[in-house]
Amino acid sequence: MITGSAPIAPEVLSFLKIAFCCPIVEAYGMTETTGGSVGTMPLDPTSGHVGGPVANVKVRLRDIPEMGYYA
């Protein structure tokens, strides 16, 4: 299963992994770039993060001082 339309609470995701007894991949992406830019590994037991970039995506962090964000 894949979830990616909105953030899902880690407690809910952990429950669903147990209830459905199958891997659930959390993914994130934008329609403008690709359906899934980052995603968890299918057998990752932790919940609450979307994992790393997929093989065909390059990720770059940059500073945005006006928002107080520094890579």
Describe this structure in words.
- The protein has one helix and four strands.
- The protein is of the alpha+beta class and 71 residues long.
- The chain has one domain.
- A four-stranded mixed sheet has the order 1-2-3-4, with no helix packed on it.
- A hairpin with a 3-residue loop joins β2 and β3.
In short:
The chain has 71 residues and is α+β, with helices and mostly antiparallel strands.
Multimeric status of the protein? single chain
Biggest sheet, open or closed, and with what strands and sense? 4 strands, mixed
The number of helices is: 1
Distance between the termini: 32 Å
Rg on CA atoms, Å: 14 Å
By secondary-structure content and strand pairing, the structural class works out as alpha+beta
What is the total tally of β strands?
4
Order of helices and strands: EHEEE
Hey, roughly how much beta strand do the residues contain?
15-25%
Shape: globular
The whole-number mean of residue pLDDT values reads: 85
Helix content: 10-25%
**How many structural units, i.e. domains?**
1
Task: Provide the low-confidence segments as ranges.
Answer: none
Largest sheet, order of strands side by side?
Answer: 1-2-3-4
Topology:
Blueprint: E1 2-3, H1 10-20, E2 25-30, E3 34-39, E4 52-53
Parallel strand pairs: 1-2
Antiparallel strand pairs: 2-3, 3-4
